[in-house]
TrEMBL record:
UniProt entry tagged with the keyword Acyltransferase: yes
Organism (species): Hoeflea halophila
Localization: Cell inner membrane
UniProt record, GO biological process: glycolipid biosynthetic process
MF GO annotations: acyltransferase activity
CDD domains: LPLAT_LABLAT-like
Domain of life, per lineage: Bacteria
One Pfam family of this chain: Lip_A_acyltrans
Record key words, sorted: Acyltransferase, Cell inner membrane, Cell membrane, Membrane, Transferase
InterPro entries: LipA_acyltrans
Protein name: KDO2-lipid IV(A) lauroyltransferase
């Protein structure tokens, strides 16, 4: 009897979660459809302003401030607040830019003058396209990071990207469909993803990974001087396929513009026997991302529980 009652309660909870997710997703999609009725710059500016007002009212804002306090103990509360509000504006712009992606992405490698999108490291894109060797590009949740694979495709470079789907299944389905249309091959971060990426590298292709996500296990490293666990996947793939690794990032510029940068390959740390040092490589990735975040702190997603401190936030 008790077992059947628990089953019924479990089904009710699951059903309520589905309803909640559907309502949330419907509200988001309705808002995006409304935004699409207006000129791109005005619509994006509007959601930016609204997010700066609404974001600070949420529990996620408190988590962001707690993260900022620990990462920047030398900064004042007012400075933490400014960074957090900039973050909300960046996130709102990221969502709205999905709606206007075709209008916003005007990058042309042969153009004489830059448009909204400019690219640094064009020669690296061309090198990777023509080399026919496996490679890995890593990035972080900075600026509009979604533009990077689109830029790569502009150069004829097909990168298989690993991404973490949103928790809301209805939002995840919609986002995945939109990304597949403009961003080529995508691999949701779930069981079997590592094997899919490995096959791509084995075939001489390229993969892209985000390396700043929370990871419960893996290499113990530091980020902003605080202990974190970093996914060792990239290092393990390098160990297996001996491929080059390139940092890449997106930077928001004034006037609704973006700069996409691809940097020269990093030197992978090795042990005395010549094998890849997994922990040192994971730390190197963290150090690179930290340097990006310190340069543009308002363009990173501070509301993620990267340091697993959610239990400290009330």
């Amino acid at each position: 009897m008790a077992s059947s009652t628990r089953m019924v309660l479990t089904r009710i909870v699951i059903a309520l979660r589905r309803v909640r997710d559907w309502v949330t997703a419907t509200a988001i999609f309705t808002l995006l459809r409304l935004i699409a009725l207006f000129p791109a710059d005005k619509a994006i500016g509007f959601v930016d302003a609204m997010a700066r007002r609404i974001g600070p009212m949420t529990k996620r804002h408190r988590l962001a401030l707690r993260n900022l306090e620990r990462a920047y103990p030398e900064k004042t509360r007012a400075e933490h607040e400014t960074i957090a509000r900039d973050m909300w504006g960046n996130m709102a712009r990221l969502a709205a830019e999905y709606v206007f992606l075709d209008k916003l992405f005007d990058f042309d490698p042969d153009a004489s003058e830059p448009g909204r999108i400019e690219v640094g490291g064009s020669e690296i894109f061309l090198k990777l396209r023509d080399s026919n060797k496996p490679f890995i590009v890593f990035t972080a949740h900075t600026g509009n990071f979604e533009l990077l694979p689109i830029a790569a495709a502009t150069y004829g470079l097909d990168v298989m990207a690993l991404f973490r789907p949103p928790n809301n299944p209805y939002v995840a389905e919609k986002v995945l469909a939109a990304r597949r249309t403009s961003m080529g091959h995508l691999v949701p971060s779930r069981a079997g993803a590592a094997f899919t990426l490995a096959r791509r590298l084995e075939a001489g292709g390229g993969v892209g990974v985000l390396v700043d996500q929370k990871f419960h296990k893996g290499a113990e490293t530091s980020f902003f001087g605080l202990t974190v666990h970093t996914n060792p996947l990239l290092a393990k793939l390098v160990r297996q396929y001996d491929c080059e690794v390139y940092p890449a990032r997106s930077i928001r510029l004034p006037g609704g513009r973006h700069r996409l940068e691809v940097e020269p390959p990093i030197t992978i740390p090795r042990k005395p026997d010549g094998s890849v040092d997994i922990t040192a490589t994971a730390q190197l990735l963290n150090d690179k991302v930290e340097s990006w975040v310190r340069e543009y702190p308002g363009q990173w997603q501070w509301f993620h529980d990267r340091w697993e401190i959610k239990h400290l936030v009330k």
